[in-house]
Structure formats: structure tokens, C-alpha cells
Amino acid sequence: MRDLVRETTLTANDFMVPLFIVEGTKTKTEIPSMPDYFRFSLDLATAEAKRLYDLGVKGVLLFVKVADAEKDNTGLAALNPDGLMQRSIRAIKKAVPELVVATDVALDPFSSYGHDGIVKDDKILNDATVAVLTKMALSHAECGADIVAPSDMMDGRVLAIRQGLEKAGYVNTVIMSYSAKYASAFYGPFRDALDSAPGFGDKKTYQMDVANRKEALVEAARDVEEGADIVMVKPGMAYLDIVRDLANEIQVPIAVYQVSGEYAMLKAAAEKGWLDHDTVMLEQLMAFKRAGASIIISYHAEQALKLL
Ligand code: PBG
After folding, report:
1. Which is the most buried residue in 31, 105, 263, 282, by most CB within 10 A?
2. From the candidates 71, 93, 181, 267, which is the catalytic residue?
């Protein structure tokens, strides 16, 4: 009876899995603040992508960790046609063509300042950054990315990326915009994973104020107008009101990103025996669906799929 009247379902079709990729071969390193989650060298990441696809995962979201020597204040390494991201897209699309490959578009892993944009006099230059992000997205599309996902929160980047893609003939590349990305302390473990913590200040001049709700609607509506196919809310659990607002008002699919800090909290509590890991995990994931998300980006995806 309960199954018959259930309002929300959680299935394998709901998930995308973040993959952290590093240079080298045959390396798989656990991220200290994300137990059971790993950084992979590309050979192993490709095998991992295949394994996840065979498990039923529909998509992955790629992040790369760049050596300090390659970082600068222009995003040059992000545009390298043979950069780690570019090689990763090609390798994974070749090995698992049916797996949806999404890529992170932002400068922070490539920035000597650890910021998502180009820095001048301790400020982030919005428009100069947008020009680089557009080239970066195009470079990912050229390698076969199905989705480009700008996570930088610069104004006007979705339109610029859309126009760049159209002009180059990439009319089928999907833009998944991090529209409502909050200046959150829940990103801590991720910044450990990619060694991308800001070198000075914080990200509050471009990411959203955690106190704001209406602004999320404005940002998302603007992104859709500029050509976003999917809009995202991030983090997840503490922002379910935003997911619901967007689901009610915005006529494109909503993605939610359950971020590294959320993952770490549950792992830590479970390790102490204070929470039942799998039950709490499924409850959280179900809550994202109930709030109106179509896509859940989660480090728990594999475990969830196994249980589902
Ligand atoms: C940066 C980016 C961040 C995450 C995804 N892309 C961190 C940040 O803004 O500093 C966070 C993901 C997570 O915490 O799991 N462009």
C-alpha cells in the first residue's frame, strides 16, 4: 500500500558522480576528509567510469587536480588542448561512449590564487574571466564533453559560453549552470581534494550570500534566459528551500549538488556510530527528489545505487 501511494521515487537514473582526476598512472589516493572517496589517475579514472556505468550510473562530472607549477593568473593551463581535463574527456568518452560526461568550468584548480576567476588588486575580474571560461568550455566541447558546467558564478558567462558553442557548431552541448551556488563552508573537503582553497579572502564576491533566497531565482532565471539547459543548486541539504523554489518557478531540469562537506559529515557521524549511514544517506537523497531535483550530484551515488 505504501508503495502504491508513494509520491517520490529514487532511481539509478537520478545520479551523477563527481570524479577527481590527477596526473600519473595506477594511482588511487583516498581523500583524507572524504573517507572511501578517491582521486584517480586517468587510466584508473577511465576504468572507474566504466565500472560506474555498468552499475547504472548515467553521468559523471569531471574535476582535475593541477600541479602548482601549472597554475597562473590567466587560466592558461585550462585551455591546453592536451591538458588533463581534455585528455580525460577524450579517454572516458572513448571507453564509455554512452556515459554522459560533464566537465567543471571554472579557474580555481588552475589559479595560483585559488580563485574561480582572474585576480587583479585582490578583486576578481568578471568579464576577463568570462572570456577565458568561454574558451575553456569550447575546448571541453571539442574533446567530446556532453555537458559543460560553469561553477564560477561570474555574471554573463552562460550567454558567452552559449554563443561561443553555437558559433563553433557545438549546438548539442548542454550547459548545466551552477546558478545558485552559495559561498558555503561545506566545500572544505573538496578544496582539500583539489588543493584549490582560495589563497586570500573568500569567494563571497561571486558566490551567493547564504542568507539569500530571492536572489537564487533571479540568478537561475537569468541563466535560463542566457541559454542554460539545466540549473543547479549547491550545496544540497541546507538549501532544499531553494531547490523547491526553483522547481516551482523554473522550466528546465534542476540539479542539486550534495557537496563534499555533507558527505564528510555523514561519514564522520557513521564512523562514530552516531548515525546509521545507509538509512540517513537514502533519506537525504530522497529529500532532494522530494524538493524537486531531477539530477543529484553525489559522492554517495555508488553506494545508493547498490542499495536501490
Ligand atoms: C569550484 C568548485 C567547488 C566545488 C565544485 N566546484 C568549490 C568552491 O567553489 O570552492 C565544490 C564541490 C564540493 O564541495 O563537493 N569551482
Report:
1. 105
2. 181
Alpha-carbon distance of 180 to 231, in angstroms, equals: 8
The secondary structure of residue 208, as a DSSP letter, is B
The whole-number mean pLDDT for each consecutive block of 10 residues of the chain, a chain of 308 residues, reads 96 97 97 96 98 97 95 95 98 98 96 94 94 98 98 96 98 97 95 87 94 98 98 98 98 98 98 98 98 98 96
Which position has the grid cell 532532494?
A: 288
CA 212 to chain centre: 21
Task: Parse the chain into domains and list their residue ranges.
Answer: 2-307
Residue keyed to cell 586517468: 42
The answer to whether residue 234 is catalytic is yes
**C-alpha to C-alpha distance for 189 and 34, rounded to whole angstroms:** 7
Instruction: Tell me, yes or no, if the pTM score tops 0.85.
Output: yes
Ligand 1 pocket: which of 115, 132, 190, 297 to mutate (most atoms <8 Å of CB)?
A: 190
* Alpha carbons 87 and 196: distance in angstroms, whole number: 21
Question: What is the CB < 6 Å shell around ligand 1?
Answer: 104, 106, 108, 116, 151-152, 187, 190-191, 203, 259-260
